[in-house]
Amino acid sequence: MSAPAQHPALYIDGLSVRFGAFRAIDNLSLLVNRGEIRAIIGPNGAGKTTLLDIITGKTRPNTGQVMLDGTLDLLAMSEPQIALAGVGRKFQKPSVFEALSVRDNLRLALRSAGRSILREMGHRLTADEEGRADAMLHRIGMAGVDTRRAGVLSHGEKQWLEIGMLLLQEPRVLLLDEPVAGMSDVETERTAELVLSLRSPERAIVVIEHDMSFVERIADLVTVLHEGRPLIEGSMARVQADPKVRDVYLGR
């Protein structure tokens, strides 16, 4: 007897959203499977960040469907409910608690998993939770700076710390919005290694990025958006060879 078909981590169908007369997303459909790293690229204004806003509940579409694991209707849920359901998002600008140490940022991420941060500030971590924080410090390559205040970290280090904080929430879908913007070449390569290490049969990763070398390094599949809808989808080699993509980026 064959195994039952697995639902995609993200199922998006017929998605449209308008801001006045501007159609930011235009009848967009997309499937992202668990175990996959999907890159979404396109020129400015293509609808990339708006798509993440819809998935996370920040923006509501006019039409369409967004399902998590084939069972949860994300459009019927609030932003906190979507986060608790297993959708984690890292915005373009890193968001860490700059007055706290690297380790305390990770501790706070563990304390706040499914709970109020303010209520849990005094909550002591269990030995198992401290072990998870230790493991995450090593995973993101920051064990040597665990006592350093987050506010003095480099831009790249803040990005890695925030990714670590999100991972401690155990997301089923991880959304990364321009994770290497503003990074040095060394930081970009280290971020690529980190993202590749996050691949898991239980998790889908969606990355929005303008750095094509980074996309080529990490992506299993690439979706090109143009004027709010997919233009082409496939390997980076296929995307780069498509004349429509060159026309879009060159403005022809």
Automatic annotation (TrEMBL):
Keyword Glycoprotein annotated: no
MF (Gene Ontology): ATP binding; ATP hydrolysis activity
Domain of life: Bacteria
Pfam families linked to this entry: ABC_tran
Keywords from the UniProt entry: ATP-binding, Nucleotide-binding, Transport
InterPro entries: AAA+_ATPase (IPR003593), ABC_AA/LPS_Transport (IPR051120), ABC_transporter-like_ATP-bd (IPR003439), ABC_transptr_urea_ATP-bd_UrtD (IPR017781), P-loop_NTPase (IPR027417)
A GO-annotated cellular component: plasma membrane
Domain ABC transporter: 10-252
NCBIfam families per the UniProt record, alphabetical: urea_trans_UrtD
PANTHER family from the UniProt entry: CONSERVED COMPONENT OF ABC TRANSPORTER FOR NATURAL AMINO ACIDS-RELATED, HIGH-AFFINITY BRANCHED-CHAIN AMINO ACID TRANSPORT ATP-BINDING PROTEIN
Designated name of the protein: ABC transporter domain-containing protein
